[in-house]
Task: inverse folding
């Protein structure tokens, strides 16, 4: 999926460590979304951000998870004190200003917790 | 609300046949719908979209049908090819907002 860049593609952490997932949106896109996907399941919405603002974080756990989209640089999804249940694929998507435009996805970060 | 799929439904078709993948969406206020294709190890890829003021939209080998009365969406793929094998997700966008809700997905197997 050209355009939306996520890194790392794979991330291994031990329980209790921190995980940082990065996402650079497509050029010209000002909206970023994070989703979580378990094997054989659909994508679950976590958070929607614009530059320097969190617009909707209704899908994100209240503890240990945070997200930001600074004025400069990529969007970051941060998971503190990771647990085994955090193992999943995390996808980032971006879209332009118009709400009726499809989101474009990166190829995700596969997070594995040992 | 959010869709949660525990086991993906599967559709198996013969190469060259037409495929129809169905989806029930959840919110009558949704006004924009999208179909995505997800191949193994990759992110969802946009296929086709439709707005609520339309019943049908055609692309290259794909057609999306929208029935607002029963809140049903379908994706038709003509002359299905092995490269069409993937998981297909429908998604709805609620009432002019940006939050998009994904369906549980359907796995399409194409037999050569």
Result:
């Amino acid at each position: 999926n050209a355009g939306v860049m996520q890194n790392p593609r794979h991330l291994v952490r031990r329980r209790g460590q921190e995980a940082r997932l990065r996402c650079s949106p497509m050029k010209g896109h000002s909206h970023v979304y994070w989703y979580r996907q378990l094997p054989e399941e659909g994508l679950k919405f976590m958070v929607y951000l614009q530059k320097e603002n969190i617009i909707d974080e209704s899908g994100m756990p209240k503890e240990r998870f945070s997200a930001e989209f600074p004025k400069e640089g990529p969007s970051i999804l941060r998971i503190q004190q990771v647990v085994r249940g955090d193992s999943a694929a995390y996808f980032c998507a971006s879209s332009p200003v118009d709400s009726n435009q499809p989101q474009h996805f990166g190829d995700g970060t596969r997070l594995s917790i040992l | 609300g959010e869709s949660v799929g525990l086991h993906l439904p599967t559709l198996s078709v013969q190469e060259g046949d037409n495929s129809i993948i169905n989806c029930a969406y959840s919110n009558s206020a949704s006004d924009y719908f999208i179909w995505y294709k997800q191949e193994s190890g990759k992110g969802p890829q946009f296929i086709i979209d439709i707005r609520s003021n339309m019943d049908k939209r055609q692309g290259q080998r794909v057609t999306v049908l929208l029935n607002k009365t029963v809140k049903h969406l379908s994706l038709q793929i003509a002359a299905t090819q092995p490269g069409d094998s993937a998981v297909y997700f429908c998604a709805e966008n609620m009432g002019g907002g940006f939050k998009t809700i994904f369906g549980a997905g359907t796995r399409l197997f194409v037999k050569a």
Q: What stands out?
A: The longest strand of chain B covers residues 30-38.
